[in-house]
């Protein structure tokens, strides 16, 4: 057999030149340009039209994805988390309000009635209520053991934390002169922020933080978000109790406007919504015209120098209320002072 050299290729192809795609080549330049344009269009549709330099379609796709993808900013992450928490709040509140409809109606929507001669308490630097001429328009009082404990702990804590000698604090024992009707929490909030406020996510978070147990909340929140969501509800306390009454008017007349409007509706007082939203209180009251509606019975002094152990005991009991005093818990309202 003789040795020989053969060449196999495309007709018309020259060394150093490449044609296509597509093949075969057509000698008609116009038709060839259309075929190349069609091929490019198909490529763009298939691989997204990335105008890179790679000849590998897979690399082109990866480069395009990397180019278009933007890392979320801290602000974006916070917004997404807030939206996620708001969604949890709406879902949990719907379940909670359906499960404990009767209890919530009693705590939030039903006016409080204080019978004539019922016992009440308050804490003051004055020995007698009648000594407080400056406080003749309204007064902060309690009628439940839980609220009395909260006010007592707060008053004692203020004395113990004072860097200078303060006035003596007295526990005033009082009685109602007549039947008293107190405006409930939801009606006070409606006066301040309008009817729509009771449907807001913020209002729902107030109710869940105040009344829903951790075990109930956790049933509707993924494990990875449970701790963060509960902390979120707790952190809202600092904003939700910030000058609520001032939203009803200027700082100097927010209380007065509420007193006037509630009085027109036939109430002798309102639930103190700022203290009510604190986990320590049950149904704290702002009573109107105290010199007319209540009377002094007796008073007891709270001594600063000997009450540190007593304060610790009171504070421990308040923590018991916080941990066990939730709707659905058997211990609700059963802890004594």
Secondary structure class reads alpha+beta
Fraction in helix: 40-55%
Strand content: 5-15%
H/E element string? HHHHEEEHEEHHHHHHEHEHEH
Low-confidence stretches: 46-54, 330-337
State mean pLDDT (0 to 100 scale): 75
- The DSSP helix count reads 14
What's the N-to-C terminus distance? 117 Å
Q: Describe the main β-sheet briefly.
A: 5 strands, mixed
How would you write the strand order of the largest sheet? 1-5-6-7-3
Rg over CA atoms, rounded to whole Å, is 36 Å
Number of strands: 8
- State the shape: elongated
Instruction: Give the total of domains.
Output: 1
Write up what this structure looks like.
With 337 residues, the chain is of the alpha+beta class. The protein is 48% helix and 12% strand. It contains 14 helices and 8 strands. The protein has a 5-stranded mixed beta sheet with strand order 1-5-6-7-3. Strands 2-4-8 form a 3-stranded antiparallel beta sheet.
Keywords:
single chain; 337 residues; alpha+beta; five-stranded mixed beta sheet; three-stranded antiparallel beta sheet; 14 helices; 12% strand; disordered C terminus
Short description:
By secondary structure, the chain is an alpha+beta fold.
């Amino acid at each position: 057999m003789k040795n020989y050299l053969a060449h196999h290729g495309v007709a018309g192809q020259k060394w150093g030149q490449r044609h296509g795609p597509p093949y075969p080549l057509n000698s008609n330049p116009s038709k060839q340009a259309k075929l190349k344009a069609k091929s490019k269009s198909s490529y763009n549709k298939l691989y997204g039209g990335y105008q890179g330099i790679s000849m590998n379609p897979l690399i082109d796709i990866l480069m395009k994805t990397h180019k278009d993808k933007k890392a979320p900013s801290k602000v974006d992450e916070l917004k997404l988390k807030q939206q996620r928490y708001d969604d949890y709040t709406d879902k949990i509140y719907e379940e909670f309000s359906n499960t404990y409809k009767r209890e919530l109606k009693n705590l939030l929507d039903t006016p409080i009635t204080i019978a004539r001669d019922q016992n009440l308490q308050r804490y003051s630097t004055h020995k007698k209520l009648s000594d407080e001429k400056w406080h003749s328009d309204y007064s902060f009082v309690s009628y439940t053991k839980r609220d009395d404990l909260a006010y007592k702990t707060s008053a004692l804590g203020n004395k113990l934390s004072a860097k200078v000698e303060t006035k003596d604090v007295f526990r005033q024992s009082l009685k109602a002169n007549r039947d008293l009707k107190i405006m409930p929490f939801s009606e006070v909030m409606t006066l301040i922020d309008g009817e729509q406020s009771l449907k807001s996510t913020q209002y729902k978070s107030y109710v869940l933080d105040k009344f829903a147990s951790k075990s109930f909340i956790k049933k509707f929140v993924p494990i990875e978000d449970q701790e963060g969501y509960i902390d979120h509800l707790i952190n809202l306390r600092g904003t939700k109790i910030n000058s609520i009454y001032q939203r009803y008017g200027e700082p100097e007349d927010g209380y007065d406007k509420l007193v006037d409007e509630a009085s027109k509706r036939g109430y002798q007082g309102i639930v103190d919504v700022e203290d009510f939203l604190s986990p320590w209180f049950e149904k704290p009251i702002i009573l109107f015209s105290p010199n007319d509606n209540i009377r002094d019975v007796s008073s007891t002094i709270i001594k600063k120098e000997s009450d540190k152990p007593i304060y610790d005991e009171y504070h421990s009991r308040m923590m018991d209320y916080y941990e066990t005093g939730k709707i659905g818990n058997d211990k609700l309202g059963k802890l004594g002072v």
